[in-house]
Amino acid sequence: MRKLDRYIGMSVFLAVCLVAFVLLGLDFAITFIEEVKKVNEQYTAATLIQVLGLRIPGKLAEYLPVASLIGTLVGLGALASTSEITVMRAAGVPLWRLGFAACKPVLALALAGLLVAEYVSPIAEQKANLVDKLQVGVNSNFAITGGSWLKANGDYVYIDAADRQGKLYNITIYDREQDTLQAIHTARSATQESENTWTLHNIATSTFTEEQVIVSHAESQEWYSSLKANYLYLSTQEPDSLSLTQLYQYSSFLKEQGLNPGDYELSFWSKMFRPLSSLALVIVAISTIFGPLRSSTMGGRIFSGVLIGLAFQNTLYIMGRLSLVSSLPPLAGILLPILACFAIGLYLLKRRH
């Protein structure tokens, strides 16, 4: 029986890996075509390829549930088309055993994807975002390409990007007293020297008086602020580019500040339940292989898998977004579609048993 499990598992494993490779290749090609218009003297084609390459681990973790669905349809479908599944069933192998053998490699890949989403893709994705922002904003005085707006010591602060060491890039500080704008400070970068002291580098200051605007420049200047480097770094990142640990820490910080952490909680639960999503889709795939798709062609199975995967991902996305604008917790918004997918798959399997 172990040899049978390994045989089925290897068929599914290789099919899932092949599908994931194809999906990543298509995504890379389509994104390159869409983003190539950004290429210029500063943002070269090599930089674009570097950014897209750094985003591959995150895309891999994101595509694993759908790749598991299509790969299971392809792997088990190939065995069914050569009547090997029929022989196994005739030899007395129960349906649950075949399903269990198919689920084991998918579960291993899903857990590997979870580790990638925690330890590999956040570092790569955040580096890609940093390279992308600094290259795109190189000719922009205020570098409005994303980033984060904050309020510190009564002033409004815009930070374009930050790295993992706490260094800030392209900072704009709107110095004001009450409702009057006193000055605008723009700095190329900033480093934290102590708990409440920062050093701004390459500063341009526009000071507003009643008669004129005075522009001055300086190589460095101290900036007193209570902002914390670690949370500044997290605030400049999109929720999808953060690890599970970072999402949990920053959502807790937002709750302490009385702010809405909905986007970060939604991203946290989406990543946390990806292995469960993969298993739910595999259950549906197994139920269709032994049901309506048992005599279908390979192309028909792939097409059906794409449709089921798209329907599931869209339902997951819609329910997640609905949870942000309603009283439904993000956890429920992610978990309900997964449980519904499990229920449908188990129901179809029960009918075939």
Automatic annotation (TrEMBL):
Localization annotation: Cell membrane
Tree of life domain: Bacteria
InterPro entries, per the entry: LptG, LptG/LptF_permease
Topology of this chain in the membrane: Multi-pass membrane protein
A biological process from GO: lipopolysaccharide transport
Pfam families for this protein: LptF_LptG
Transmembrane feature ranges: 12-33, 63-83, 95-117, 272-290, 302-319, 331-349
Keywords attached to this entry: Cell membrane, Membrane, Transmembrane, Transmembrane helix
UniProt GO cellular component terms: ATP-binding cassette (ABC) transporter complex
Major localization class: membrane
Quaternary structure, from the entry: Component of the lipopolysaccharide transport and assembly complex. The LptBFG transporter is composed of two ATP-binding proteins (LptB) and two transmembrane proteins (LptF and LptG).
Family of the protein in this entry: Belongs to the LptF/LptG family.
Function in brief: Part of the ABC transporter complex LptBFG involved in the translocation of lipopolysaccharide (LPS) from the inner membrane to the outer membrane.
NCBIfam families (alphabetical): LptG_lptG (TIGR04408)
Protein name (database record): Lipopolysaccharide export system permease protein LptG
Organism (species): Marinomonas aquimarina
Lineage, uppermost ranks: Bacteria, Pseudomonadati, Pseudomonadota, Gammaproteobacteria, Oceanospirillales
Gene name for this UniProt entry: lptG
